Amino acid sequence: MAIIATGQISIVDLSDGKSLSCYITSNLPKVQVSDPNPGGGLNPDWTASPSLVLTPVVFANQTALPLGSAGLSVTWKRKEGAGTEAVLASGETASGGVLTIVQNKLVGVPSGLLTYLCYVTYTDPETNIPVNIVSDITFSLIQTALHAQSVWISGEQLFKYNAEGAVSPAQIALTAHAANVSIARWQYRNASGEWTDYPTTSDNTAINGATLNVKPTHSVFVGDGATLRVLTSNADVTDVFSIYKVRDGQDGTLGASAPMAFLSNENLSFAANANGQVAATTRVCNVVAYQGTSKVTPAVGEITGAPAGMSISKGAAADNEIPITLSISANATLGGAGPQQGELLVPITSPVNTTLKIAWSKINTGATGQTGAAGADAIVFSLFAPDGTVFVNGEGSLVIEAAAYKGAVEISSGATYAWAQYASGEWQALSGQTGSSLTVAGSMISGVGTFRCSMTYGGKTYTDTLTLTDKSDNYQANIESSGGDVFKNAVGTSTLLCRLFQNGQEVDVEGTAHTYTWYRRDKDGDAMDEGVAFATGKSIQIDGDDVDGKTTFICEVS
């Protein structure tokens, strides 16, 4: 049977079928690479032609609204990192709803993240009722460095136990992000304070890879905390990460929830030249606090221990977290020309009285060229659609471009590409598509279509995905969730209902005229059910066991 419509919904990013929707298209990649070395620069350069152009695509009840339509107004704002929203700055001009940026506005943003927010208001001329929506797009700045070596660990930091003893998540996956070094092995700090190799189990058959799986039953916890680190091919380049177990308080007069405070990153390293001088840079780590399993805003006192050349400031709370910004002056030695290290003391007075420590170190590059040739540049790979991501009534075609950089230089040779489309619960290869771009005809999708590009370069494979939408197809599938978009501690239930529309009118209300087949993708876009249907029917029941982090549910109507 032919598929006539496809709908999808993410549990953590629910689109609940609002009458007004907005998509932002960018003519340039969302990643800008900065090369600070002589002869380097920014790629792409927003000051060159073409400049960065952001165009909103607006729909009301599945009908496209051209910019300039009666009752439609568009306002743009900007936000740097986790800061507050602000009006547009110089070099950022909005005209006719379209935002044009002619300056490299990411330069000078400490966090390296710049978000543009599009506020859309549409007043229906029939009801005279205004409907509002906001959409955003974030650009990031990646800066290359000469012979810079670094590693940092990302992943969740909490195992949460409810009052009945159930734990969520069942497993935490830690990822070590390395630049110009290779991963040597993972270790944990035992009860004697000694670093010991992480035990190999069926969960981790090896401990020298970029990913480490941690379960609450692993024998690496001392009390309710585990301190982990990753070692690299450079003994001076490491990162330390902590995972904690938190518990809800038991019922009764003695059942108060336990307080806890910790740092998002407790180990920072700075690269210096052979003379021990550090380039001007800024690092941010957050103070995070919990009362039981409830996230609260901590009270942070005066931070001490900064060496000469380092200044420290506390920011306003965002998402209940207090950001701590470490700013390094240009050419600072942080105490001396040789390698340096130290600790910053962070006093916490609420919800618990304790002192957290940020360990910092300065690593000098070799004066005699021990690093040999310049270290390998980071590979950046992403997909973007310069002409937008929305079809109107399945007409025309759209191009998906692959943007790939080695350091600050665009990769133009030596790479191979393979494209695939997600359908029937699995990635299906697109025969003959081996170039760095893919032309997608509107007839190739029904409702939504997700495409993946795999680039092989230098013996490694890099992947990214992009979803195209047909907003005005003859048939349109919308998915609604009765239980909202968030399950906490793997607890919760919801009914997912696929509503089928034809020319703006709902059809097949009883779900007997068509076949509804459901599939799942994980947060990385990979199929979760190996091409086998997860469920069938116009409506299905899901619970916390069906959701792993961020799970996308896809319904194909045939």
Q: How is this fold's topology laid out?
A:
Elements lengths: L4 E6 L9 E7 L4 E4 L7 E2 L8 E9 L2 E3 L6 E9 L11 E4 L2 E4 L11 E11 L6 E14 L6 E5 L3 E4 L5 E2 L3 E8 L3 E7 L5 E3 L13 E4 L10 E8 L5 E10 L11 E5 L3 E6 L8 E11 L2 E3 L2 E2 L9 E5 L7 E7 L11 E11 L3 E11 L14 E6 L5 E2 L5 E10 L2 E2 L5 E8 L2 E4 L7 E5 L6 E10 L2 E11 L4 E7 L11 E10 L2 E3 L8 E6 L13 E2 L2 E5 L8 E6 L1
Parallel strand pairs: 3-11, 13-20, 22-29, 31-38
Antiparallel strand pairs: 1-45, 2-5, 3-4, 5-6, 5-9, 7-10, 8-9, 10-11, 12-15, 13-14, 15-18, 16-17, 16-19, 19-20, 21-23, 23-24, 23-27, 25-28, 26-27, 28-29, 30-32, 32-33, 32-36, 34-35, 34-37, 37-38, 39-40, 40-41, 40-44, 42-43, 42-45
Description:
Helix content is 0%, strand content 51%. The chain is mostly beta strands and 558 residues long. It folds into two domains: 5-144 and 377-470, Immunoglobulin-like, CATH 2.60.40; 150-364, Immunoglobulin-like (Sandwich). It has a six-stranded mixed beta sheet, with no helix packed on it. Strands 2, 5, 6, 8 and 9 form a five-stranded antiparallel beta sheet that branches. The chain starts with a strand and ends with a strand.
